[in-house]
Amino acid sequence: MIFNKLTTLGLTAAFVAAASTVVFAQDDTSKKLYLGVGNTSADYWTQMIWGATQVMESVGGTVAVIGNDFDPQKSLQNIGAITAPGCEGCIFTWFPDSPAFTKTFVEKIGDAGGFITTLWNRAEEIHPWDTAPDAWIANISFDGVDAGYQNGMELCKAMNGEGAIVVLQGVLDNAPAKQRTMGLEKAIAECPGMTILDKQVGSWQQAPAQDIMRTWLTKYGDKIKGVVGQNDAMALGALAALREAGLAGKVFVTGTDGSSDVVKQIESGEILSTMSGLNEYQGAVAAALAYGVRVGDIKVADLTEAQRDFFMQQILITKANATEFLARKPDPAEYSYEAIKADIWAKSAGQIPAGVN
Amino acid sequence: MTKDTILMFLRRNGALVVLAIILTAVSTAAPGILRWRAINSLLQDNAPLLIMIVGATLPILLGCLDLSIAAMASLAAVMAAMLSPALGSASAYVVVAGAAMIGGLQGWMIGRLQVPSFVISLGALGIFKGIGMYLTAADMVGIAPGISVYETLGSRSFGISNAFILVLIVAWLFTLMLKLSNLGRNIYAFGANEIAVYISGVRRDMVRAFAFAASSGCAALGGVMMISQTMFASATVANSLLLPALVGVVVGGTAISGGVGGVLSSLIGGLIAILIRVGVTISGLPPESQDVAFGITILIAVALTTDRAKIGLVK
Amino acid sequence: MSNLIKSQGPLLALTGLVVIFSVFSESFASMANFAAVLEAAAIPAIVAIGLTYVLMQASIDLSVEGVASLANIILSITVANSVTTTDIGLWAIPLVLCAGLLVGATSAAVSIYVRMPSLIVTLGMWLTTVGMAALLFPDRLPQLLETRITQLAIDKQFGLSWIVYLTLALILVALWVEKYTRFGRMSRAIGENEPVLIMSGIKVNRHKIAAFALAGGCYALAGILLGARIGVGNTQSGVGLLFPAIAACVLGGTLLSGGQGGIRQSMIGVLILVSLRNGLIQIGVDPLLQSALEGAVIIIAVAGSTWHLRRKVRVIK
Amino acid sequence: MTTAFSLEGITKRFGEVTALDNVSLTLNEGEVLGLIGQNGSGKSTIMKVMAGLHRPDTGIIRVGGKVVQLRSPLEAAQAGIGLVHQEQSLITSLTVAENLFLDKPATSTRLGVYRWAKLRDRAKHQLEKVELDIDPFTSVSELSFGQRQMVELAKVLSLEELVHGHLVILFDEPTAVLNPPEIQSLFSQIRRIKHRSSVVFVSHRMDEILDISDRVYVMSDGRNVADRDKENVNVDELYELMVGKQRVNREDRKPRNAQIGAEPALTLKNVTVPGEIEGISLTLAPGEILGLIGVQGSGAETILRTVFGLSDRWSGEIDYFGMPLNVDSPPQAVDKGIGYLPAERKTEGMIRNTTVSENVAITYGWQHGHGAGLISRARERGLIHNWVTKLGIKTPSIGQRIDTLSGGNQQKVVLSKWLFGKTLKVLMLDHPTRGLDPGARSDLFGVIRELADQGLAILLVGDTLDEVLTLSDAIIVMKDGRVSARIEGVQATPPSEEELVKAMV
């Protein structure tokens, strides 16, 4: 009884205190970019966030980073929380955790009178020009098919066009997983000597990938000549299993992401290749588009489809360019709003074709 | 009112009090949240979660747990989308009815196989997920456009989200059922002492089957509501809803051990959890500390809403 | 025979799985594959050890993934690593283990003294520890440069890494604790009949706090070993540990209602799950259907191994 | 005679209820004190205060003249006070040896680590005292009911070695679940330990109290109302003090004029439950009360549970009003009009944490409802009030939580569940008066007779010979799972108790 009383009072006090100390800047909505990310603890995300932050800071704005842990429901709740108190003219750059939710997110922000650029995920059927077209400015992704293809061809080259490979897939219904598989299949079509021995789901994670690789090694033994890890974490998991078997460097491994760990292994020769997107650039362009439209520098009506739904360039990292890649240091000046706005689509790799999402 | 009656009121209605406190706190911080449009939009977004919370309450009242609800919602979304071109509106009804039957089967199996609900529904979770993956080949399925059920669920009447109206109707029906029907009486008694209820001549397998049918049916309804917003289904579309649903039920004051609580309390619990999430997001805390803030606030909310007088041993 | 089924149901289920997979796959029954199974089972086994004591006491602990991730992050930023300058060497291990113990003890203390079910307390603790891991995470993935830790996964003795040997040692200790210590004996008794123990003057709350603290320590150890295995600190490293661990305990016969089961049973449960995952890959089942098959096997195995316990007058829940 | 233990001016309140009101009690060395009183009179509370389970609000406890605080059972044990529980307090998943020393200071562990060998020796010694020949490392789950009670006793007697001074051993209704030979064995144990212990013995059975006690201490409404040496006991006076009215047994024994139906309601032919009963045949007619009696484990309860659909495996034939009875679960039995009052009130009878009214209405409430599965709490309320009045259930309101009532009132609530419907034809009562005080018992007897008069067929497993003799029209004596005697016309020509006991053992 006493306990209940005390805690009720205590909590009330705490809430009132918390509520009164949090000051909400209801000033210029154009200066605050809401950046929805998967999490903040991986190279890709920190680089992307860095790019967006440079753009916003160059115009005296801020970035509010919101981590959604790859959970679309949490994303939905967070967008709801931001738009609920009123959000006329808010700007968003969001990673829709599942393509199934992209439509809901952009429509929601459209209803609230905001502007959004999306990263990576959209359903095949919807595009920025046909769904909440005034709010959804652009969708910026990386070409997963190309990533799968280029890594596949690199593998083909390394194996001299002959041999069996295994594939560690990402979470199956994620677009990048499907795209990278499509790309790999395209590579196999051009390199018929390369065959897929087995495919399993490593769920983008290192430890499960390691367990699967270990199982494969016992099942197929030295039949395996190459491993496709659909992201870098799984490539590292496969590498760890190969190291255990003393096969590191003998079996070729590819990843995708361009994380520094993997690039270091590429330098040392244990991993063959990985694909790195221009991650900082993606964040910067997404932020610049959202801000530019918001302040009227860019007119949505003037944009073409290829300018609203496009791939960002990416680079294949192999032993040849690994050292150079590690040494690069992005220059903040190149990521200011003005610098990006000068040629927003300079590093576009073209419109996203139909059938890849 | 004397001091004692006030305290009694607080204890009985802990969930309502907490809801009021949090609503006050959040709206002080962001007054815009009290606008009808904002509330409505929050309710619409969270209708799938709320309907799952409503359904999940019934097994918990028995002292059981249904871990398969989120997987069932995803599977239902996938099935509804796949059936929508052929069946039109009927696809939603077929899916919800089918889910209720499967849920009923789950509940009945718990008694027949005498395997705890935790295990049966954990297994069912895997099975539903696998079937969903297999049916869609891990791809997304778009819903056929122009089907009235989905359009209705995605829109509003009298300015209120239809999906949320449906949540209220279902919650109200369940509340009436729990209060006025023999089945409702049996559900509460079952949660208090399963064996005594069985020896009193209650068909416990049927009671359990009903509770699980209700939770599966509501989960499927949640899946249908979800795709009426997203227009796309995938085999994992609702998978992340399991824990929030359980959190909502518990925050509402329904005891995990069974026999105590109710559907309306759970609904209030769900709203509390949603508002806490809103509060944490707009609080301006860095993203890294939001989870910590959410976790701790939820714990405090549960501590306040649990009526300890009615719970014996705390496990 | 019927007695054997009664007492050793889970073991028979495991044997059955092994036989089936050996028949349908040539490579399943090889030394190399058994080693692969043991390697894959090691970390889940450590988690299951911690969880078993908690489950025996009829409580539950959902904070596994958060604690393991948190432990992994603390380890990776306190030993020699590629991001921070801190390097306290192997002292990081006791530090991390203490963090795990502390989280576990906190969960138990809140559950006991605020009188809240452990399910909900540890659920909150799960969210909280995940958040703490994110808070502690430096800007970039810290790579572990402390070779004494990473060697645990790489160095092999007779085809098995030190992680496996460490797990085996821990299992032996856990079995000893279960049989020979007051804590171990009382844990099962608490699950069976807590009021009587309280009346008998047993310090039940201490045993509960100890169980949760030990469990937290086990998850932290799992986080350390995950770090050794993946070589980096990752806030997601613990993801996917919880449900398999609970499923393993339940498969082995550690009932959630408490008072039953034990370390040996839980370890059999872990082996069943890991062999199943391994075997499904070995016999080439469609990856899309794997989770469905796993789910079905969990239900069938538990139903089969507890079939003899069926009584009309029995609480199931 | 020296005083071994005393309570002085003890008061204990639970919320607004005063359970003990300024109670004083002295216990001399080597004395057996019989403690009697109705349910709710404070007997159990006083025992719990002595055992360190409850702390009194005011008052002094002295052990051997010194004032002590008994903060926990452990402290009580260290002071030489041990309680043999009414409800069994053994942990079935632990071994006998562990249970024996569960509530003792940890002498068999060092730094929390068991020393199994030492534990075995010590346990063996304790088991010898109660002449129980089992391995100390047997799990309690493998023991029979009687064996467990002996372990319970041994658990308390092990204080003998632990404490050097004088012991105080408390027995809280130990005989409630024991059969006559077991009771005799218990009494011989009590007599054996008298030389160095004082004993407090609680029972509802006056004959037992008079048999074993040196002094009788009577409680009523939380107060001590009489304290008599055995020599000066006037039984009628004690009953009067206890129940506030004259002893009712004489009247109860008045033969009932039973209207027994010609067609049997229930016929059992050759019913066998492996390991429990074998080849049981009996018939029960409407209006008849058939008493079953036997020692614990004789199988009488199993017959009831089999008819009610609770036995997992059984063979034979059961006819119900001329038709085969196909019942596999209680709901089916209830549908046919069969009711069952289980012996285990707490686990099987009452629905804890729910109200009196929900407990009464759980089975047949729907029969008074609006149809279509909808219930009418308003209509139920009136009917429940009727039963509460008729059975004399003492409860502040029908919305009261059943847990807060005394045992006897709980039992009456559980019984009224079966009387609440319109379709009951056969009622089976399994130890209906277990744990009830004489007042409640005679109330219940009246109800049972009335029900039979209304044409209900009643199958009764009795607690005592007296009870079965009082109520039954016919008696079946069970022994080792078989019928060992069937006695008709009990009301007209009652058999002697000796005759029945002979058939039982």
Mean pLDDT of chain D: 83
Number of domains of chain D: 3
Tell me the number of helical segments of chain C per DSSP (H or I, 4 or more residues long): 13
**Percentage of residues assigned to helices of chain C:** over 70%
Number of strands of chain C: 2
User: Share of helix among residues of chain D?
Assistant: 25-40%
Cα distance, first to last residue of chain D?
40 Å
Gross morphology of chain D: globular
Could you please describe the fold and organization of this structure?
The complex is a heterotetramer of chains A (357), B (315), C (317) and D (505). Chain A is of the alpha/beta class and 357 residues long. Chain A has helices spanning 2-21, 43-58, 72-83, 99-111, 144-158, 175-190, 206-220, 232-244, 260-268, 279-295, 305-308, 322-327, 337-342; strands at 32-37, 62-67, 91-94, 115-119, 136-142, 163-169, 194-201, 224-229, 252-254, 274-277, 309-312, 314-317, 348-351. In chain A, the strands form three sheets. Chain A has a seven-stranded mixed sheet. A four-stranded parallel sheet of chain A has the order 7-6-8-9, with helices on both faces. Chain A is elongated. Chain B has 315 residues and is an all-alpha fold. Chain B has 14 helices and four strands. In chain B, the strands form two sheets. Chain B has a two-stranded antiparallel sheet with strand order 1-4. In chain B, α5 runs antiparallel to α6. The longest helix of chain B is centred in the C-terminal third of the chain and has 27 residues, at 204-230. The mean pLDDT of chain B is 89. With 317 residues, chain C is an all-alpha fold. In chain C, α1 packs antiparallel against α13 (290-305) and α2 packs across α11. In chain C, β1 (156-157) and β2 (160-161) form a beta hairpin. At the B-C interface, α5, α6, α10, α12 and α14 of B face α4, α5, α11 and α13 of C.
